[in-house]
Amino acid sequence: MKHNICVIGSGGREHAIAWKLLQSQHVDKVIMIPGNDILQNRDRIVNVKLDKLDGPLVANVCRQYNIELVFVGPEVPLCEGISDSLKKQGISCFGPSEKAAVIEGSKAFSKDFMVRHQIPTAKYKNFTDYLEACKYIENEVDYQMVIKASGVAAGKGVLIPQDKKEALEALKRIMVVKEFGSAGQEVVIEEFIEGEECSLMCFSDGHSLQVMPPAQDHKRIFDLDQGPNTGGMGAYAPAPFVIGHQGSPRGKHGFGALIDRAIETVLQPAIDGMRKEGRPFVGVLFAGLMISRQQQIKVLEFNCRMGDPETQVILPLLESDLYEVVCACVEGRLDSIPTLKWRQEYCVTIVAASKGYPDVYPKGLPIKGIEECNSVSGITVFQAGTSLASDMKTMNTSGGRVLAVTCIDKSLETAILSAYKSIQLIQFDGMQYRRDIGQKALNYLNSQEKVQSVSYSESGVDMERGDQVVDNIVPMAKSTNRLGCMADLGGFGALFDCKAAGFKDPILVSGTDGVGTKLKIAQELDIHGTIGIDLVAMCVNDVVVQGAEPLFFLDYFATGKIHVNVATQVISGIAKGCKESGCALIGGETAEMPGMYKDGEYDLAGFSVGAVERDKLLPLLNEFKEGDVLLGIASSGVHSNGYSLVRYLVEKKSGLKYTDKCPWDSSKTIGQSLLTPTKLYVLSCLAAIKAGGVRALAHITGGGITENLPRVFPNGYQAEIKFGSWTIPPVIQWLNSLGNMKQEELLRTFNCGIGMILVIDPTQLDTVKSILESHNETVYTIGRVTKSSNSNEKPKVVYI
Predict the structure, then answer these.
(1) Which residues does UniProt assign to the signal peptide (predicted)?
(2) pLDDT given for residue 639 in this prediction
(3) What is the per-residue DSSP string for 569-590?
(4) DSSP result, 21-89
(5) What are the chain's domains?
(6) Which mean pLDDT values do the consecutive 10-residue runs of the chain (800 residues) have?
(7) What SS3 class is residue 592?
(8) Which stretch of DSSP H or E encloses residue 125?
(9) What does the alpha-carbon distance between residue 283 and residue 77 come to, in Å, rounded to a whole number?
(10) CA 731, CA 673: separation in Å to the nearest integer?
């Protein structure tokens, strides 16, 4: 079944939206309110004029044409709440609510919002009082300024004075003369920042987003960016100074590392921030960015809709079905559709404007050549300020920006030349257009060809992503600081002061380990938040066995390609594990090694250092006595050993998938249960050691009880373990049912429910057990120490 859809607006942007929607297999007709008498697809585009643009009147049109979905093009109706009004009428609307549209409707709100959500932007100050603003400029400003009308000003309410005198004049034009009407009731005075402007848009359903290619607009009326600001005199996409030349690494989202970073630091925080503030943003979020020579990103502004003329170069590149994307956003399921597909080409649009624009201009002038231009291969004319004369044949001008000639080609230079050749077919009195659209991009590409240098990123190593990971983990690492830490992350070596930590005559104890093939399950399920806890536990649990207090931790994260969100999740788990063990995450290494690992794969290694006073070092081998009690502390599950066998049993023997429900716990999937993090025993065991009576500890890892417990026994002694004196976890029982392992094999493969064993002086048994239980440990008395018949016999475990 095909649907009719309504598009609100009358510009070139709205023509491009209608043009793209009509390519969908789901769309029959587009009803445009008010429209602009488009010559193309006249049998499928209906223009409807209304006395005023409000929700009830638009809803009436929708009912008349059996329309269930409205696509709002311009910002003004969105800021006035048309989306909310239509929803009250039972009509879906692609475009944000009035509360969400304020991100464009008030530049003052937008700037404050960016600060609240740590989105990078220029320093600024908002004013509603003209005299206070003047006083601020005269007495406090020591930088070049940009003066912005806070409200909606059709893209023209931004003035860039060259000195304080011009700044005061600009302020007067906005707030006193009211050159931009009510938009100038409040102003934003902000720092001018240099760089290249980039228009970056994304579709959003209020939670997730899908990004569009970065474009560059040309705001000034004349060549070389001279003259007053306009709504936009032309654009091109994608912008090569952002994505690099053809053949550059495409990054996670398809447009290079810089766009990946913009998504992570600008777009996603904005979408998340709006939702958290009760303003979920559904529609297209437009971020006007400034990219410095050092590739730093700052936000100039947010808009609540698609850009014009950026839309005219973005939508021709879209291969995916626009109607399906819009429906996914409106229905809150954008993350359920495939990643958008884009043509690997360039698109250029050149705007033809009326004489006098952006000031006073004539209307009603006849236009020739639109149909002829449209007939040129690869050329599309998007109409804007156009309307049919009373004879219903002659097309006349009716606006400042009259139309845009658009071309798409694999070569940016060819696209530009074709667009300029074709625009010469268009004629109307006083027609003006810029002759340098896309020239900056050509200059950039030519300069890159001349340099012929190789960047590290071309080999697949993206230092920017690595830097972003570091930026993300710094606050996590700081949260683990403890007495003894001497420096933040970033130095060549990590420093720690044992004396400051309270030690007098310490022995340093180190431990290193990994997580093994448990990582494969985490990577397959895209669950990375707890695997870092496993890494910490495997190291610090070893350190505490020596009676030592873990002091600091270092990690090594190696991957074929850094995905910032994955690395951040993993290291957040490491930080959490450190915090719960009382040790500091003091340093680490993130290594990107394309060719060594596949994209999506990573490996981990951890390094922990602890300290114990010389006379407190464990095990106390000389104090072992027959009859000493063996206490077992329960594990949380499989922990981090034996996962090669676990994976074999699940994948080859069970007939189930990791995403299937647990046979032993219906509230979780098999994968979720198997990713239960390794238990951290540090704080409970240190408390037990401090109470006295602890002869030794054994961390039960690979090799199980059978191979790990004898490591802390002196010759001539053995451990007598009563099998069945503790509860074997259901997950291990299930794995054993699949493998039908012998008891001996089971006990030297898995921990079987015991993660740490303490050798205890019987006179201290009740005290130690009580302390462990006060730390929420489940404790079992599982056996005792016995003497061997031969005092030189190596220790072993005997199960009874």
Answers:
(1) none
(2) 95
(3) HHHHHHHHHHHHHT-EEEEEEE
(4) HTTSTTEEEEEEEE----STTTTTEEE---SS--HHHHHHHHHHTTEEEEEE-SHHHHHTTHHHHHHHT
(5) 3-98 (3.40.50.20), 123-192 (3.30.1490.20), 463-616 (3.30.1330.10), 621-799 (3.90.650.10)
(6) 95 97 97 91 92 92 96 96 95 97 93 94 89 88 85 77 88 89 88 91 97 96 92 95 73 89 96 96 97 89 96 98 97 93 96 96 96 95 95 93 97 96 97 96 82 50 68 79 76 84 94 95 94 97 97 94 90 95 91 87 96 96 96 96 93 92 94 96 96 96 94 96 94 93 90 97 96 96 95 93
(7) strand
(8) strand 124-127
(9) 14
(10) 8
Q: Report pLDDT for 452.
A: 47
Do you know the residue count of the chain? 800
Structural contact between residues 592 and 560, judged by C-beta atoms closer than 8 angstroms: yes
Half-sphere exposure of 570 (CA within 13 A, CB side): 29
Alpha-carbon distance 146 to 138, whole Å?
Answer: 14
Euclidean distance between the first and final Cα of the chain, in Å? 73
What count of other Cβ atoms lies within 10 Å of the Cβ of residue 84? 17
Distance between CA atoms of residues 519 and 504, nearest Å: 40
- Rounded to whole angstroms, the Cα distance separating 167 from 179 reads 15
Structural contact between residues 553 and 585, judged by C-beta atoms closer than 8 angstroms: yes
Rounded distance between C-alpha atoms, residue 189 and residue 725, angstroms: 73
